[in-house]
């Protein structure tokens, strides 16, 4: 791995006031690494998956070996994944470098907790699509600053076991003969196949055969039931900036999409109301209880791990089990077509192209940001440059199964990232808004989505969302609650 001379890559201070000075403890380096025999220590906050699968240890070990003679070392910040930089940073307890989704990093950047970076001097700049960097852009006084360095692109993906595909899928589930199961192409067939599995479940408690499974209280993983029908988070002004007064969860035909969510909930268990399906999806895919589950690319390794353990229990060696699990765990984009009227129960064979709308999902870009409170800005840049190098992003991809934003790594590790960026360019992925106000959307909207899913399990006479009008009213109320949280209750 090629090392650069320390401090070659400079940090650009945000124009709206000197960020470091405003941060209190983030003053400029008084001494360069190695002077007076001192060693700079950087605290790195990574996500839980990277820690659990050992990637963070690999990254720290590689960085510390490369920089052992340069007076810099990096350590685990030993903080929770979503530790609040705004609360901890000013008191010196926050990390120097943090890995987060674009919406979280830019929320911090909006309040000057994250500093801007001259990304054009990073090794990854030329191999990373501009769309990925744009997710970390902030505009002030007509100037655009970039406050994060992309690592991987995210969108909800469908995970399944290839060896659990029905043996007759080519005969019964490939009407267009394109060698792709129909239930991976449109939601009506996914509903139909899920219903077939439920109807064939003859276990005592009818809890052994499920089709598509998702925790509907998670907006990020299930926004397609809104966005595919014209809903959105925030509108935009003429200059392209987000308008947080324009809240669009109930816009367009979103209520029709939600009716489809409720229909799908009837084929699940009550785990779709809360986080039960999310926490159990790895094991349930491995043991065959779930046919397919929704998750993000960076959880691929967790699905493989659970399936490998199952194969080991069946008698395979550790290496054989891992190889078989990697062969069988598949990760694909969600079906690309949803019914225009929201009715998933219709037979797809009786529908034409005009009866469908394109699926639009919520997406995001994960990457590194640098705390404006750090005392070691240049050293942080060195770390970020190292962590986003070809070697480390390649290792991260191999260990965690991410969809890397570096095109050179993506081309050598499969086409998932290319597919995701194609979907992004074609408008099939709506990125999480990179503004502070996005913090206020999760609680009211996710609470509502869980309650909407719960309607599938309420007794007749107790159901709350019996028609499109009642769903529309609930969505409009949720949008109002988001508005109130941003503008009325905040201050």
Quick take:
The protein is an alpha/beta fold and 491 residues long. It has helices at 19-22, 48-52, 55-66, 85-88, 102-110, 130-134, 169-172, 187-199, 219-222, 224-227, 254-265, 276-286, 300-313, 318-328, 377-387, 390-400, 407-412, 416-425, 442-454, 468-488, and strands at 40-45, 72-76, 97-101, 137-140, 143-146, 149-154, 157-161, 210-213, 234-236, 242-247, 290-295, 329-333, 337-339, 356-358, 361-370, 429-431.
List keywords for this structure.
491 residues, alpha/beta, D-Maltodextrin-Binding Protein, domain 2, six-stranded mixed beta sheet, four-stranded mixed beta sheet, 20 helices, disordered N terminus
Furnish the topology, listing elements before pairings.
Elements: H1 19-22, E1 40-45, H2 48-52, H3 55-66, E2 72-76, H4 85-88, E3 97-101, H5 102-110, H6 130-134, E4 137-140, E5 143-146, E6 149-154, E7 157-161, H7 169-172, H8 187-199, E8 210-213, H9 219-222, H10 224-227, E9 234-236, E10 242-247, H11 254-265, H12 276-286, E11 290-295, H13 300-313, H14 318-328, E12 329-333, E13 337-339, E14 356-358, E15 361-370, H15 377-387, H16 390-400, H17 407-412, H18 416-425, E16 429-431, H19 442-454, H20 468-488
Parallel strand pairs: 1-2, 1-3, 8-11, 15-16
Antiparallel strand pairs: 3-15, 4-5, 6-15, 7-11, 7-12, 9-10, 13-14
